[in-house]
Structures
1.
Amino acid sequence: QVQLVESGGGLVQIGDSLRLSCTASGGTFSRYAMGWFRQAPGKEREFVATISRTGLTTSYADSVKGRLTISRDNAKNAVYLQMNSVKPEDTAVYYCAAGRTLFPSASISEYDYWGQGTQVTVSS
């Protein structure tokens, strides 16, 4: 059983930067592909970014390409989401997820473990 805890959310202004962190425990972190998803009020949870077990492969939603960067540190059992040039549409609860999938995936169903989420609010 893998436990995931997100941190780093908060209230920021348009154009600011923010780094979300997710720390894992209870499993072998390097065996899992990791993903970030988000859910805005009244909307379904959506894919943001994913990273392979080794960190060599990443993939992003079109809406965040060039602004958000996913990375991981297997020695620290952590995955990060660097958010630059944030926009009001980035406002959401952000969740990290771990999946045994061999390849990083944008599909929610490929992930086995989820954190509780961290709120990001972009003020205009």
2.
Amino acid sequence: VKLVESGGGLVQPGGSLRLSCAASGFTFTRNWMYWVRQAPGKGLEWVSYIFTGPGSTYYADSVKGRFTISSDNTKNMLYLQMNSLKSEDTALYYCAKDIVCSGGYCQRDVGYLGPGTQVTVSS
């Protein structure tokens, strides 16, 4: 399994970014795929996930209405469109598979994560 994120950067509050994740080494279709993030000093928080069936999408309350998860099964790509970004969205964002989460936070030593892409929201 290989997951490689891209698209992070520095953006002003209210701005937008689109994260991408290139997946390989497994059958992408009909899998649960996640975006998770880790801010400095905090745990690994799930942001959104999708069943690449295609199918259902889920969002953490903190990003609902601002972020949109999607996938392109023909390209084995996962995306996260992030709009109306806030300073509290600043974190290292990871694409993940087979991850275990509870109470909004995920175990780092279970499943697969990419190297991450940094998102910094600051004026």
3.
Amino acid sequence: DVQLQASGGGLVQAGGSLRLSCAASGFIFEDYIIGWFRQAPGEVREGITSISSDGSTYYKNTVKGRFTISSDNAKNTVYLQMNSLKPEDTAVYYCGALRYRWRLTLPTNRVDYWGKGTLVTVSS
């Protein structure tokens, strides 16, 4: 049974930090890349960052320099460290597993497995 479990969301003031976790089970972690996606109120879900099993990463410009994705392959867990948070980062954050070829574009319709979202609220 494939599962992705995202956690770590919460309420934080602008300029603050949060760390999200995505624990994966039930599939071969090395066969997929893990992406973080977010969906703000009234907006479409978008991919913001990804990490491959070899450690290579991708960041969308809107989060580059503020967010850091990392992984612990032994624990099948991916982390998203979010610093210098802004009110516009407010969204439900999801992790998803995709095939390697989608690591730079992160199309939501190519996600094979989704985790439940975790809400991040950044107050001004």
4.
Amino acid sequence: QVQLVESGGGLVQAGGSLRLSCAASGGSFGTVAMNWFRQAPGKGREFVGSIGWSGILTYYADSVKGRFIISRDNVKKMAYLQMNTLKPEDAAVYYCAASRLPRPTLSTADVISWGQGTQVSVSA
């Protein structure tokens, strides 16, 4: 089972950028899709984006499409979420997650491992 640790969260002004990182250990990182989800206070966990095992295929939620970019480095066992033009409504705890599938997926039902989460705060 792959273990995941996120980093890179923090406080940023609206319109700013942050890059989240997700370090993986154990498991078969290079053969499964990696996903990002987020959860704001009082709300359910929301899909943000997913990247397939090879890094070629990506899928994004409409709310972040054109602003966020997911990437991965299978040699370093790292996944990244570049967040640009941040909005106050992007504030949440962000989680990286390993999928059981090689292709991008948006369902939490396909997640086999979660990171502990990293807080992103956006000031207006």
